[in-house]
Design brief:
about 90 residues, mainly alpha, 3 helices, elongated, about 0% strand
């Protein structure tokens, strides 16, 4: 007899919303990081100016909160997706 699947950690709509929010934050962070690398190809001074703007965005209480919440949110989302899809995670307890 097959084991019944565990209930998802989050409802589908909440998991999608959480995934969208964390994805947008990750996209913004990575885009800014790569833009800073691209500015280094132009000049070190230009990269320094762009970096000052990026520091204003990410090194304030809201930016720090977004980055601090980002990693646990992604972990919860991946866990919820694996449980709802019936995929087992090595080392996880069902």
């Amino acid at each position: 007899m097959a084991k019944p699947l565990a209930r998802p950690f989050l409802p589908d709509k909440a998991a999608r919303t959480l995934g969208l929010i964390t994805g947008v934050i990750m996209f913004a962070f990575v885009s800014m990081h790569l833009l800073n690398h691209a500015m280094l190809l132009v000049s070190e001074e230009a990269a320094g100016q762009v970096l000052r703007v990026f520091k204003v965005v990410w090194r304030n209480p809201l930016g720090a909160l977004l980055l601090t919440v980002l990693l646990p949110s992604i972990s919860c989302w991946r866990c919820a997706r694996s449980i709802s899809c019936g995929i087992s995670i090595p080392g996880s307890v069902r």
